[in-house]
Amino acid sequence: MSMIYCMECGKQISDMAESCPYCGMTMYNIQPPPIQQPQSRQSAKKPISFTKPAIVMVICTAIYWISLFAGDAIGGITGVIIMGLGGISSSVAFIAFLLIIVRVVEYGFRKLRK
Ligand SMILES: [Zn+2]
User: Fold this and answer.
1) From ligand 1's centre to the CA of 4, what distance in Å?
2) How many separate helices (H) and strands (E) can be counted in the chain?
3) What is the pLDDT of residues 44-78, one digit of tens each?
4) Where are the domains of the chain?
5) Which of 24, 82, 107, 111 fits 71 for a cystine, CB–CB 3.0-4.6 Å?
6) For the purposes of burial, counting CB atoms within 10 Å of the CB of 43, is it exposed (0-12), middle (13-18) or buried (19 or more)?
7) How far is the CA of 10 from the centre of ligand 1 (A)?
8) 63 and 86 Cβ atoms separated by less than 8 Å
9) What is the pLDDT of residues 8-56, one digit of tens each?
10) Is there a contact between 88 and 29 (Cβ–Cβ < 8 Å)?
């Protein structure tokens, strides 16, 4: 058995004592407050945004269709290049679409955990 100092009044007390005989403070109170659950931190995370990838998808899809018609109308090498750029744009739209799916799944998982 050893002696410790009371956190409240500073007097020497037994480390076996459940509470301080001088001020009555419960020794369990000395323990640091419980660490916050990671779950509560997760709910504090910023909400999942669908807006940005949705806008990117809509714009890139529009560029793709415009480039198809424009490239067809212009014709020749220039038309092929414009169609090629439209193809890249459609790839970006597809990536944005995948991102939306990932976020929808993430959103669903968060709802399930609550
Ligand atoms: Zn005390």
Assistant:
1) 10
2) 3, 2
3) 567 778 888 899 999 999 999 999 999 989 989 99
4) 1-30, 47-113
5) 82
6) exposed
7) 6
8) yes
9) 899 998 888 888 899 988 876 445 555 555 555 555 567 778 888 899 9
10) no
